[in-house]
Design a protein that fits this description.
The chain is of the alpha/beta class. Helices cover 48% and strands 18% of the residues. It contains 9 helices and 12 strands. The strands form 3 sheets. The chain has a 7-stranded mixed sheet, with helices on both faces. The chain has a 3-stranded mixed sheet with strand order 1-5-4, with helices on one face. A two-stranded antiparallel ribbon has the order 6-7. Strand 4 and strand 5 form a beta hairpin. It is globular.
C-alpha cells in the first residue's frame, strides 16, 4: 500500500537535497574543481578520452564530470614521466623529502574539503573520508624521515686495497592503479614512498572516484610547480580498464602497483612479468570475514 508523504516530509527532503547540493558546490570550489574537469596531468592538464560522470552513491546526484585519458594521452604522459624521473632522481634524497613535506602540509590545509569529497564520491561517512586523507598525511611524515635514511653499506673486499659499496637507485617510473574504496590513501602510500626514493609516479585511479584523483593531483602539482620541478613527477591518467591494461604492458613503467581484485591482479602480474617488470600487488575478494561458532551475533 502506498502512503502519500506528508507536506512536512516533502519539505524536509527538498531542504536536504538543497543543502547537499550547496555542500557539493562549496567542496568542489575549495578544491579547485568545476562541473567539468580535465583528467590528465603530465605537467599540463588535458584529456581526450571519454567523459565520465561522478555520482554520489547515496543520492544519485551527479557531482561533476571528468574527461579521461585515451591511449595517446597515456603515451604522452609516460614520455613526460620518464623525462621527469631523470631530473627527480638527481635531486638529493633529503631535498626530495622536503618536497613531500610541503605536499603533506598542502594536503593538511585541504583535509576537510578533500575528506568531504571522498565521502560524497565514494560513499564513506565523513570521519572516514577525512581519516583517509590523514592516512596520506601520516605516510608522508614517514616518507620525510625515510628520505634521510636511504643508506647503503660498505662491504669489505677479498682484494687488498679494495672495497665494495652498495648504493640504492630509483627504479624509474612507478605506475599506481588504485581502487575506488580508498581513493586517496592507497595512492598516498605508494606516491610518498616512491617520491622520496627518486621515482616519478603515474596514477590511474578508479573511474568512479575520478574527481578525487583530480583534486589530489591538483594539490601535488601546485607544490611541484612552486618549486620549479616537472609536474610530470606526479602524473595522472584517469581512465578505465584500457588505460590500466596499457600501463601494465608498457615497458616505460618500471614498477606497477595494483590494488584490486585477485582476478584482475593475476592478469596484471602476468603482463608485467612477461616484460620483466616489477609489480606490487594488494589483492582481495569481497571483504570476506570468518565468524567463529562462539561469536555473539546479537552483539555484532
Amino acid at each position: 500500500m502506498f502512503v502519500q508523504p506528508s507536506a512536512r516530509l516533502l519539505r524536509t527532503r527538498a531542504f536536504s537535497t538543497s543543502a547537499a547540493r550547496r555542500t557539493t558546490s562549496v567542496t568542489l570550489k575549495a578544491l579547485g574543481l568545476d562541473a567539468y574537469n580535465l583528467g590528465v596531468y603530465n605537467g599540463a592538464w588535458g584529456g581526450n578520452g571519454t567523459i565520465v560522470e561522478s555520482v554520489n552513491p547515496a543520492t544519485g546526484e551527479v557531482i561533476g564530470a571528468v574527461q579521461q585519458a585515451n591511449l595517446s594521452d597515456l603515451n604522452q604522459t609516460l614520455d613526460n614521466a620518464s623525462q621527469a624521473a631523470k631530473i627527480w632522481r638527481s635531486v638529493p634524497a633529503p631535498k626530495r623529502g622536503e618536497i613531500v613535506r610541503q605536499m603533506r602540509n598542502a594536503l593538511f590545509a585541504k583535509i576537510e574539503p578533500l575528506g568531504k569529497l571522498v565521502a560524497l564520491e565514494m560513499g564513506k561517512i565523513l570521519p572516514e573520508g577525512i581519516g583517509e586523507v590523514q592516512e596520506y598525511i601520516d605516510i608522508a611524515d614517514y616518507a620525510v624521515g625515510l628520505s634521510r635514511m636511504l643508506n647503503g653499506q660498505v662491504v669489505p673486499s677479498e682484494r687488498a686495497g679494495h672495497m665494495m659499496m652498495e648504493v640504492w637507485n630509483p627504479v624509474g617510473v612507478v605506475g599506481v592503479i588504485s581502487a575506488f574504496n580508498f581513493p586517496v590513501a592507497v595512492y598516498g602510500w605508494n606516491s610518498a614512498i616512491s617520491m622520496v626514493c627518486g621515482n616519478s609516479v603515474v596514477w590511474k585511479g578508479a573511474p568512479t572516484t575520478a574527481l578525487t584523483s583530480v583534486a589530489v593531483t591538483k594539490i601535488l602539482a601546485e607544490v611541484l610547480e612552486t618549486n620549479n620541478l616537472p609536474g610530470a613527477i606526479c602524473s595522472l591518467a584517469s581512465g578505465g580498464a584500457e588505460i590500466g591494461n596499457a600501463i601494465a604492458h608498457d615497458k616505460r613503467v618500471d614498477l606497477v602497483s595494483f590494488t584490486g581484485s585477485t582476478n584482475t591482479g593475476r592478469k596484471v602480474a602476468l603482463a608485467v612479468q612477461a616484460r620483466f617488470g616489477k609489480s606490487l600487488l594488494e589483492l582481495g575478494g569481497n571483504n570476506a570475514i570468518i565468524v567463529h561458532n562462539d561469536a555473539d551475533i546479537d552483539l555484532a
